[in-house]
Amino acid sequence: MAKQIDVENLNVYYGDFLAVQDASVNIAPLTVTAFIGPSGCGKSTFLRTLNRMHEVIPGGRVTGKVLLDGEDLYGSDVDPVNVRRTVGMVFQKANPFPTMSIYDNVIAGYKIAGTRKSKNDFDDIVERSLRGANLWEEVKQRLNRPGAGLSGGQQQRLCIARAIAVEPQVLLMDEPCSALDPISTLAIEDLIAELKASYTIVIVTHNMQQAARVSDRTAFFNLAGVGQPGRLVEYDETSKIFSNPSQKATEDYISGRFG
Fold it and tell me: Where do the ABC transporter domain residues begin and end (predicted)?
């Protein structure tokens, strides 16, 4: 079952630099939440704290809490590898493993973890995941060909299939359409709407029209100035953020007066 995310007073650091200051959000299960804001305001940094990818960066650390159905992901007894399995991630640039086939790309998470399964089990996982990413019909006759040979939009859907193959409960997407053409972007947006039935989804996007189209709730991040930490300015229903925001900074950003 998809998970609820509760972030409490989170501060995110790169070494001594405070990148995001005192952010708190509550993300309901089976919803799409969009993070918007100007470049450098901490959207992607904040996103990476939700599956402990931030700490992979040298000097990356957090204070505060990230709770997944009440369990603190940063608890001393929590294995970050298990966190990343539960909270999957799709990156800005499609990154299929270039030397692997489409088939092997989908099951890469199991192979990396050393999970043993029968060929029939893996066949089922590959078909289920590619169907879930709306890619099965396009690639079912060429599963043994390199994933890197697909178009950009197909590669991004392959990366989504790889992420959902290990059956996460949350899916993070860091600008998944920024490198795609409008037709591929629409395919990903349609896919997000379908995946919401099974996953809690959080997406970072610079495209405000996209945020308005795909998300239930929107978080607006902003910077007070150069060298200052990013802050979560406002978090509300997407319809309210785009029609009647509570903060002037949000209104200015959405109306194009800055950023």
Answer: 5-248
Annotated domain spans of the chain? 5-94+169-254
Q: Which amino acid is at 168?
A: P
Strands (E), 28-129: 32-36, 60-68, 71-72, 87-90
Sign of the alpha-carbon dihedral angle for 43, 210, 6, 259 = positive
One-letter amino acid for residue 222 of the chain: N
DSSP 129-164: HHHHTT-HHHHTT-TTSBGGGS-HHHHHHHHHHHHH
Per-residue model confidence (pLDDT) at position 115: 86
Question: Residue 143 and residue 147: Cα distance in Å, rounded?
Answer: 8
CATH number of 5-94+169-254: 3.40.50.300
Burial of 66 (0-12, 13-18, 19+ CB in 10 A): buried
Cα dihedral 101, 105, 107, 109 in deg (nearest 10): 150
Whether the full predicted model's pTM is greater than 0.85, yes or no, is yes
Please report where in the chains the tokens 């999957």 appear, as a residue. 88
Among the listed residues 220, 208, 218, 239, the one whose alpha carbon sits nearest the alpha carbon of residue 33: 218
- CA–CA separation, 199 and 195 (whole Å): 6
Q: How far apart (Å, rounded) are the C-alpha atoms in residues 56 and 179? A: 24
pLDDT at 258: 62
Query: Going by C-beta distance under 8 Å and a sequence separation of 6 or more, which residues neighbour residue 168?
Result: 85, 86, 87, 88, 199
